[in-house]
Amino acid sequence: MGIRNQTQVVEFVFLGFSGIPNGHVYLFLAFLAIYLVTVLGNLMILILIQLDSSLHSPMYYFLSHLSCLDIFTSSVTVPKIVVNLLQQQQTISYNECMAQMFFLISFMGAEGGLLAIMAYDRYAAICKPLHYSHLINTKVCTILAVATWIWGFLDSALHTALSTRLDFCGVNQLHHIFCDLPPLMKVACNNAYINELALHISGIFVGGGPFLFIIFSYVFILSSILNIRSTTGKSKAFSTCASHLTVVFIYYGNALLNYQRPSTGYSLATGTLASTMYCIITPMLNPIIYSLRNKEVNGALKKVVESWRKCQHSPSIK
Fold it and tell me: What is the CATH number that goes with domain 2-294?
């Protein structure tokens, strides 16, 4: 069936920007800016974690994986969008479309699992502080991080395999700006019931499972925080969780809008906006949230800036 599909549809045409015929230059600049902010912001997080020894902890080890996932997610979609806008030709080949969808679902699925692991790390640190070094050690961190990546790739492999079985009957216009499951199912001419069923089941286990784990973790975390007598201790505990919770709500809120909907009955503008928020804006917001709301990351950034200023103003040795 995969070979048959390729003979029927060689490439897809994106219609997501069809309603803005004269604004491609502005869209090009906007998406280029989003991509640069995403990559530079997440690279900043990665560099700070490497340079500052105070950030060499499990919490920031997982944050470094989150930053990698955000860079990869953005790189799967935005460069192609930017090139298409520059060339004023909104197309993608069938094979590129399948590859783009595979890696996009892989990275976004892995991010959901990683957010659950970060919640477990906060639970262990706040609720089980005496056992923290045993519950979260180097070996455990590595196993959990690798498991999230495998989790995402396995989920994506299922959806991509099912998508290659879809017939498009010559219809190659996608109501979107990149390849994703909902727009592909929408234009398929054969029954996409199995694909939609797999998407909903995956949403329950791959998406809902980690989300419920996060909720239960924070129930225990909140209970432990409320039992802390010191106001300073409570404030510190809340601050370590605030950034993570913000990212969780943004990620799962956008994921629900993007994937847990029928393949028919939603507008082009709604579908494009939901997917853009989920796959393009979310990776850009994560480093901003962690750099603005996390005191330790802020402190590490200030130290790096101060060190750089001292180097600039120190007299050169002749």
Answer: 1.20.1070.10
HEC letters along 34-96: HHHHHHHHHHHHHHHHHHCHHHCCHHHHHHHHHHHHHHHHHHHHHHHHHHHHHHCCCEEEHHH
Q: Where do the domains of the chain lie?
A: 2-294
List the pLDDT tens digit at each of the 318 positions of the chain.
444 444 467 889 998 887 676 778 888 999 999 999 999 999 999 998 988 888 889 999 999 999 999 999 999 999 999 999 988 888 999 999 999 999 999 999 999 999 999 999 999 999 998 999 899 999 999 999 999 999 999 999 999 999 998 888 877 888 888 998 888 888 888 888 898 889 888 888 888 899 999 999 999 999 988 888 777 777 777 877 888 898 999 888 888 777 665 545 556 566 677 778 888 888 998 888 887 667 777 777 777 777 777 776 666 544
The CB density around residue 188, as the number of other CB atoms within 10 Å, is 19
- Determine the Cα–Cα distance for residues 283 and 285; give it in Å rounded to an integer: 6
| pTM of the predicted structure, to 2 decimals | 0.87
**Bridge partners (DSSP) listed for residue 92:** 12
CA proximity to 18, closest of 170, 171, 183, 176: 176
Look-up of token digits 């920031």: 60
Residue 20, phi then psi, degrees to nearest 5: -125, 70
Within a 10 A sphere around the Cβ of 4, how many other Cβ atoms? 11
Contact 187, 174 (CB under 8 A): yes
Which residue from 115, 121, 123, 124 is spatially nearest to 66, judged by alpha carbons?
115
Non-local (6+) Cβ contacts of 231 within 8 A are none
Please tell me the total number of residues recorded for the chain in this structure. 318
Locate 26 and state its tokens: 């502005």
